[in-house]
TrEMBL record:
InterPro entries: Phage_HP1_Orf24 (IPR019708). Pfam families: Phage_HP1_Orf24 (PF10772). It comes from Grimontia hollisae. This is Protein of uncharacterized function (DUF2597).
């Protein structure tokens, strides 16, 4: 059996959320350099990572308990999160550092029914440790060693 969305779980700061869907996108602005219009190497550019969680109301309410303890939703401090999935054939572990949550779609309801109410929670990666995939950091250590936290 292969890993699918059914196998992936999202852990944030010790809380396990069952997201209906979650994404993580990395933007890496590394680009090709050219001399006289001919490629002759590359330069590393800036990076960023962001994603979204789609939560049903039960899981959204778990998140809101975290917000209540923080005093407000925006009061939730950046935290480390992990998405993981495992089958007898494959394993995937994605660690994200310094996740800062926002709310994008609080209510998206259809009066016809037929589907559970969903809540969309976008997030940004804010920590220089950035993202690690199966224990391998996306950024080289020398890229982040001098960053003051």
């Amino acid at each position: 059996m292969r890993i699918s969305g059914k196998n992936l779980k999202f852990m944030m700061d010790g809380l396990k959320l069952n997201a209906q869907k979650w994404t993580l996108d990395i933007t890496d602005n590394t680009t090709v350099t050219k001399t006289n219009g001919v490629p002759d190497g590359y330069v590393e550019g800036d990076v960023e990572a962001s994603g979204e969680l789609e939560l049903n109301t039960s899981n959204f309410n778990l998140l809101m308990k975290v917000a209540q303890r923080a005093g407000s939703f925006r009061g939730i401090q950046p935290f480390d999160a992990m998405g993981f999935g495992k089958t007898d054939r494959d394993e995937l572990k994605v660690e994200m550092f310094g996740i800062k949550l926002k709310i994008a779609s609080l209510i998206d309801a259809d009066s016809n029914g037929g589907s559970a109410l969903m809540h969309t929670i976008p997030f940004d990666v804010t920590d220089p440790d950035f993202v690690s995939i199966n224990g391998v950091p996306y950024l080289a250590r020398e890229e982040t060693v001098d960053i003051i936290r």
